[in-house]
Amino acid sequence: MTTQAADVGTNWSVEKVTDADLPALSGTLAAAFFDDPVFRWWIPEDTRRAEILPPFFRLVAEVNLPHGELYGAAENLAGAVWIPPGKQPTEEEMTELVPRFAHATGDYAERLFQALDLMSEVHPTEPHWYLFFLATRPEWQSQGMGSVLLRAVLDGCDRDGSPAYLEASNEGCKRLYLQHGFIVTGEIPLPDGPPLWCMWRTPRSAQECVAHR
């Protein structure tokens, strides 16, 4: 699930997120996804969504920080949560995480787990880089940060021959990922809600990389 930022070629600085960055990163993710259609489906009430998203994203960041693949651009005005190949939670690990996410999301935990179960059913089994979340603060969108964050990992995918996968949660972000070599491979219809688009990226050859610069 991701949110958009257009590629205008700006040379924003990208750094790996540390423990000290987690409040800023989780705040950015919460602000960026506040009006996202999937998150509105998950938590329809604005007040409750504003209360739940910051601790939810803080937990997401804390759980995935040990993988070393969380990135921030322009001092965390934009951020990305990547999960490298082989680091997706096991069934046992998910069982341990469920109570923590239930506590963070309260009375909306059931709908969250419903969405995650649907996502898990179609998640690729081939080793890949998984973009769990990418977001730019609303007032800084369309200035190139999202594309810079994508290239921080996708350039390595191209060098190493590794595919990447994500679920896009709105039309704008879907367009962004299409620009970076992802293709739509399916849809996840949420019950009485908007779709999530499954998107897969095959690594580009060196010649293709030059052509898309």
Description of the structure:
The chain is α+β, with helices and mostly antiparallel strands and 213 residues long. It has eight helices and seven strands, in the order E-H-H-H-E-E-H-H-E-H-E-H-E-E-H. It has helices spanning 22-33, 37-42, 46-64, 91-105, 109-121, 145-160, 171-179, 206-211; strands at residues 14-16, 70-73, 78-83, 129-136, 164-168, 182-189, 195-201. The chain has a seven-stranded mixed β-sheet with strand order 1-2-3-4-5-7-6, with helices on both faces. A hairpin with a 4-residue loop joins strand 2 and strand 3 (78-83). Helix 1 crosses helix 3 and helix 3 packs antiparallel against helix 4 (91-105). The longest helix is centred in the N-terminal third of the chain and has 19 residues, at 46-64. It starts with 13 loop residues before the first strand and ends with a helix. Residues 2-9 have low confidence and may be disordered.
Shape: globular
Q: Label the structural class.
A: alpha+beta
Radius of gyration: 16 Å
Q: In terms of per-residue confidence, which ranges show pLDDT below 50 for 5 or more consecutive residues?
A: 2-9
Spatial gap, N to C terminus:
25 Å
Q: Please report the total strand number as a whole number.
A: 7
> Can you list the strand order of the major beta sheet?
1-2-3-4-5-7-6
User: What's the overall average pLDDT, rounded?
Assistant: 91
What is the N-to-C succession of helices and strands? EHHHEEHHEHEHEEH
Give helix % range. 40-55%
Task: Describe the largest sheet.
Answer: 7 strands, mixed
Give the DSSP E fraction (strand runs of 2 or more residues). 15-25%
Give me the number of helical elements.
8
